[in-house]
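Now for a chain:

_____
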Amino acid sequence: YLASILVNLLGVGYGTVSGWSSAALPLLESTDRSPLVGHGPISPEEASWIGGALCLGGIAGTFVGGLLVDRIGRKWTAWLAGFPLVAAWTLVLLADHPGYLMGTRFLGGLAGGIQYVAIPLYVPELAETSNRGTLGSLLVLSCCVGVELAYLAGAFLPYRAIAWVCLTVPRAFLLTFFFMPESPHYLATVQRHQAAERSLRFYRTIRTGTAVTMSTEFEDELSRLQAGGKQKHQHQGQRTNQHPDHQTPTKPPSLRWTDFS
């Protein structure tokens, strides 16, 4: 439960960026209360770009997450997504031009795209069968909590105080989630079987030691992880080194102009 709650702080952070524009845009468009002192009120076109940049970042984030999740792991992919959120709220604090705020929304969308790739893989791989559905639903819940947090902050706090409050979420995520283990399934897939066992023990709250009696369920789960990782590794090796018909592929004969006469 702890790891699932911590990783979904990322969803709360993404939700705050999503909901921030609802309170911020009317203020930014105001002629007498705009916080962009050097620029003044933003135009409708600039407001549209600030709103739409979130989805542009989300598109980019899904590709980035897809490239990273099998290379560096589910945990580290999710953890890296916290940095765009920190940068996003830092831009709000420094902004004196609408371009900064477009960058804020783009970075928030980038983090959101990465999280929607990494978290649905990470949480089911560490959860037990009995609570996998419950823990999997936390992603949507966390995003909704983040949106509501941004709404409440916008209703009661000054413009830049909203950013300071929302900045605490990704900072807390980066500081706490760093210490969580990688998912045991991913570790087994990359042939790190001892690390996979330690990770599985951590998530099943089973201490490491010969004096600890392992449950049958734990032993079965560990065996499935190790067998699945070896099978995938062997399959990748065969696909790399062998032709589909298990014969060395031969170079096809080259065609000549006389073959068509």
